[in-house]
Design brief:
alpha+beta, binds coenzyme A, single chain, 7 strands, Aminopeptidase, 7-stranded mixed sheet, 187 residues, 23% helix
Length: 187
């Protein structure tokens, strides 16, 4: 009997550096879900270009999650404070690409790299930190999947639409155990 034809697996999503040509994809992500509003002010292509320029600034490392056709569908980035070897870690995914474990895998890959020594191809940071609103549990799940440890609660830090929101803070040290979350390949 002839073997069943196998469905080819889809080409993988990859990680690559953000580039100026990603502005259109950034605009698409920011306009696809109102929950992106807290990530920056991007409602036009010009604003998307400014946001990408900011990502590409000297004190930042910005990694795109790219779909099989190389379109940017997500971001993991770190704002670096050189003197302290500390990085502020942040991420987002286009709403259509969420819920597939990509943010968790991308964040784990970038965090591992950021905390690796420079002579091993890493960015040589000693500590990463992030914060997310308490009513954004998906962000906390991504942070934990990337090896971050809950550090505390900044009570009622933000005022959004007349309501105060707690922010949960997380940190990961170079010496913390790396997570078991699988990496995404480089494109
Ligand atoms: C936060 C965000 C990046 C998560 O993206 P995602 O693609 O859904 O994440 P993943 O598919 O990798 O899922 C990661 C984890 O979140 C969990 N998760 C996803 N949506 C969730 C929800 N609404 N409530 C609780 N957990 C959720 C998943 O179950 C998974 O956890 P697990 O590994 O324990 O199963 C995405 O929701 C986003 O871009 N939000 C807007 C921007 C933002 O809030 N960024 C973070 C700012 S601090």
């Amino acid at each position: 009997m002839a073997p069943e034809p196998r469905t080819p697996s889809p080409p993988p999503c990859t990680l690559r550096a953000v580039r100026p040509a990603d502005a259109e994809a950034v605009l698409a992500a920011f306009t696809a879900n109102p929950d992106m509003a807290r990530q920056g002010e991007v409602g036009t292509l010009d604003q998307a270009r400014t946001y990408v320029e900011w990502l590409l600034g000297e004190k930042r490392r910005a990694v795109a999650v790219a779909g099989p056709d190389d379109t940017m569908i997500g971001l993991v980035a770190v704002s670096i404070e050189e003197d302290n070897k500390v990085g502020w870690f942040f991420y987002w995914m286009h709403t259509d690409a969420r819920g597939r474990g990509l943010a968790a895998r991308a964040a784990a890959t970038v965090a591992d790299r950021a905390l690796s020594r420079s002579d091993q191809g890493g960015w040589g940071l000693d500590r990463l930190e992030l914060g997310h609103r308490a009513n954004n549990p998906a962000s906390g799940a991504v942070a934990r999947a990337a090896g971050f440890v809950h550090a505390g609660t900044e009570r009622q830090k933000f005022l959004i639409d007349g309501e105060r929101h707690d922010v949960l803070t997380y940190g990961r040290l170079r010496t913390d155990p790396p997570p078991a979350t699988p990496h995404l390949p480089r494109g």
